[in-house]
Amino acid sequence: MQLEPTVPPKALAAIRAPFAALGATAIDAPVIQPLNQLLDLAGEAMRARLFIVQGEGGAEACLRPDFTIPVARAHGASGAASGRYVYEGKAFRVAPKGSDRAEEFLQIGIEAFEARDPVGADVEVAAVAWQASLAGGRTDLSMRLGDVALFSAFIGAMALPEALAARLDRAFTRPRVLRAELARAQAGEQAPRAGDRLAGLLAGLPETEASAVLEEFWGLAGIQPVGGRSAAEIVHRLSQRAEAASAPRLSAAQADLIARFLAIDDQPQRALDQVAALAREGGASVDVPLKAWQARLDGLMAAGIAAEHMSLSTAFGRAFGYYDGVLFEVTSAALGAEHPVAGGGRYDALLARLWAKVDPSVGAVGCMVRPWRAFDGSAAGAA
Fold first, then answer.
1. Are 121 and 328 in contact (CB under 8 A)?
2. CA 377, CA 138: separation in Å to the nearest integer?
3. Whole-prediction pTM value?
4. Max CA-CA distance within the chain?
5. Which domains does the chain have, with CATH numbers?
6. Helix 175-186 crosses helix 252-262 at what angle (to 10 degrees)?
7. Tens digit of pLDDT for each residue in 105-160?
């Protein structure tokens, strides 16, 4: 396992200070986390980045890749309607093959579960991420902004069939899938893929019968399933795929409009102006989310983040699939976009997915900073 170097105490204290000033409750989270629940919430694509562990005869688990889900689970278990939690500890992720990324690294962060002004909370948490990143001594920082909900609003304003809009929403955090969907529509391809045919065959059976058929097929073919997913789980996913395959498809014109939306990447005010113009061109309106974004920009600039240090990318998403609103990352020109210094966003629906009984007015937003990436080795001091 590749380890991250230790941040000098003086620099670490400076990076920690903006979080401490929020007066949040300190919290820790178990290093061992349930695997299946994390994959269900964050997305199956995360499996390749997880350190998976399993005791003899026990269920699969993993080393915590992040603190958001564990902290959200702890908040829900507390029974409190609202709460703010600050954490500091190690997280663990498998580095991509050939990468020099640390696989064990320190994170400091905050998760806020509140019913108050969500726009104000977005600004406050993003500003803390920026201030903590600056405290490490770097002078080459910029903030990239995005919004899962803005994409959903744009799609919703196009008055697409419900099943099609839902499929596009799910694909947003899977860029390859979304690009393929748009490319097929722009090329006029409507024929189902081979995998869709298999999904359709199994989806025509009751799930218990379809599971038995799949298990029999595995036995006849001598296939040994791997990955921890049962036949029933696979059949359920195939049923969802079959439903999506039979849903209405995008027209070439609709696909082109969405592709142009996703290509917007500019200083925030110019990007929002482009979104508004594109929506008008498509005969739609996204005035409500754009008004909220104007308030966020005003708040971020009031917090000391200059407009020239920010960009808004409509295609910006995160690997963790539970984010459903505003997103942000702080990056360093020296480290590059693949090594963000800090990041976070809004994930209002996560609590309801973890706990059946939650106050629907309570939203959730959080951020984390990687102290070693924030530390520049000189300006923050090495003492």
1. no
2. 9
3. 0.81
4. 67
5. 9-153+317-374 (3.30.930.10), 194-245 (no CATH)
6. 140
7. 999 999 999 988 999 999 999 999 999 999 999 999 999 999 999 999 999 888 88
